[in-house]
Amino acid sequence: MNSVDVVVIGAGQAGLSAAYHLRRLGLVPGRDLVVLDQAPSPGGAWQFRWPTLTYGRVHGMHALPGMELTGADPDRPSSEVIGDYFAAYEDAFDLAVRRPVHVEAVREAGDGRLLVVTSAGEWHTRALVNATGTWDRPFWPRVRGQDVFRGRQLHTVQYPGPAAFTGERVIVVGGGTSAVQHLLEIAGVAAATTWVTRRPPVFRTDGFGEVEGRAAVAMVDERVRRGLPPRSVVSVTGLPMTEAMRRAREDGVLVRHPMFEALTPEGAVWPDGHRVPADTVLWATGFRAAIEHLAPLRLREPGGGIRLDGTRVARDHRVHLVGYGPSASTIGANRAGRAAAREIGTLLQGPASVSPDEAVILSTRRERSN
Ligand SMILES: Cc1cc2nc3c(=O)[nH]c(=O)nc-3n(C[C@H](O)[C@H](O)[C@H](O)COP(=O)(O)OP(=O)(O)OC[C@H]3O[C@@H](n4cnc5c(N)ncnc54)[C@H](O)[C@@H]3O)c2cc1C
């Protein structure tokens, strides 16, 4: 049995930010702190993103704390650029990420600590930072006829880039940035494309600055504070209208249709009987928080979400969720990692949770790190 002060689950932007700040508090990775990640390589979810999502096409990616990402080739896939950057970051700060390690469950250890059960053994810990993102839990809506459709159905997580759709008739479902990016790419090679969304998309033509960003985060934060499941950031920010999108609208590509009623063996059918034949339906329908492993802790509220106070779970102060809800962006993940580390520093020093000897160790670590 391994015993540590803090387990961080996930080595994406949020987990690395938390690990960086915990290390600055004096916790030593590998001894006091362990970062577990199920992915094969550094990069968090970025390593799985499609090859045509080049670094130059990523919007508002914030660098990790303490190390800038400079001189990256905008034409290189973001999966490679960010994979290399995260690898260099983990090395530079000796974060000693353990991978691939899949966390299966987090339970009460019975002694006031938590028990983290993984594919590589068990850890006892006093605090937990959950930074598992959403990529591993794609959301597929249920639609009548999905099982009879004879074509292909893919989700964004499986999107291989546009070449795989050459000459096909493709229906793209979803109102977020990924859906629009897929649609615009595929339209260049497909025989026909149809874009459907559940709600009419809201395009932003004005600038999206700090004030708007804060307002959007506050809306998601408000839901999470009420114990409701978080909404995606695009659902509150709208879609920023780019030059490519303007052109696609003029060309009749970026034309939204309401959600179809059902799939048929040949394609989709709408309530008024209108039919569109299709070879592929691409579900760009988003993600949910990948937090099934936390189920034994019973953190959910009656509203279905996990109520947070900052990053701290209201029902269990040992547990922090970072990169979740209002912090599900690269800048949000950075801030949440710092906030979680600070609160855990306080928790580890708290009179009720540490022995006097341990409090001395933590204050010594703090002195070493300053
Ligand atoms: C297609 C796409 C494009 C985006 N573009 C942008 C952008 O341009 N700018 C921006 O700011 N944000 C963007 N975002 C959002 C941004 O990616 C995220 O907010 C942020 O990078 C997520 O970081 P994270 O650390 O929360 O999660 P992730 O990067 O998903 O990292 C989570 C890590 O946890 C691991 N993990 C999951 N479950 C377990 C488990 N049970 N056990 C062990 N490990 C586990 C995963 O393997 C992964 O390595 C984008 C998101 C998507 C889906």
Automatic annotation (TrEMBL):
Protein keywords: Oxidoreductase
The keyword Oxidoreductase belongs to this UniProt entry's keyword annotation: yes
GO molecular function, one term: flavin adenine dinucleotide binding
A matching Pfam family: Pyr_redox_3
The protein's name: NAD(P)/FAD-dependent oxidoreductase
